[in-house]
Amino acid sequence: MSKVITPREQDYSKWYNDIVVQADMADHSAVKGCMVIKPHGFAIWEKMQAALDKMFKDTGHVNAYFPLFIPKSLFEAEEKNAEGFAKECAVVTHYRLKTDPQAKGKLIVDPDAKLQEELIVRPTSEAIIWSTYKNWIQSYRDLPILVNQWANVVR
């Protein structure tokens, strides 16, 4: 059974998701806004990533990975990011769950496990990358930095 695909001009994001689902590359998941990439879709990603990775490395780039979580203070310091994304960010406030003593089998956030500083699930990479680069760059001799990051972001 063929599903109707949203016209690209009408809603680009929905059009893209319709194509991906109909091509059986991904499925919607239990997490709103997230998808499970199926083996066929992941195989396509691996081929694309391998080709791009070779192109980056041919130009002298190396791969690095930066954390998915950003301390709230660092994110706030990068004002342009906070202005554009602050209201849309997921925030981690605790580091542990526990069994609810009043409801067998239910989990609750452990109120005693509150983080000292909230962590933002990063919607973009600039804040974490620039705070790291300031430690890597001491003079012009440390430039250029040719780094590629394969990363997840959450928006």
Characterise the protein shown here:
With 155 residues, this protein is of the alpha+beta class. 35% of the residues lie in helices and 22% in strands. The chain has helices at 12-22, 39-58, 72-77, 79-85, 126-136; strands at 26-28, 35-37, 62-64, 69-71, 90-94, 97-99, 107-109, 114-121, 147-149. The chain has a three-stranded antiparallel beta sheet with strand order 4-8-5. Strands 1-2 form a two-stranded antiparallel sheet. Strands 3-9 form a two-stranded parallel sheet. The mean pLDDT is 90.
Q: Numbering strands along the chain, what is their spatial order in the largest sheet?
A: 4-8-5
Give the overall average pLDDT. Answer: 90
The helicity comes to: 25-40%
Low-confidence stretches: none
Estimate the strand proportion.
15-25%
Report the C-alpha radius of gyration, rounded.
20 Å
Compute the number of helices: 5
Determine the N-to-C terminus distance. Answer: 32 Å
Query: What can be said about the biggest beta sheet?
Result: 3 strands, antiparallel
Shape type: extended
What are the secondary-structure elements, in order, as H or E? HEEHEEHHEEEEHE
Structural class by helix and strand composition: alpha+beta
Overall number of strands: 9
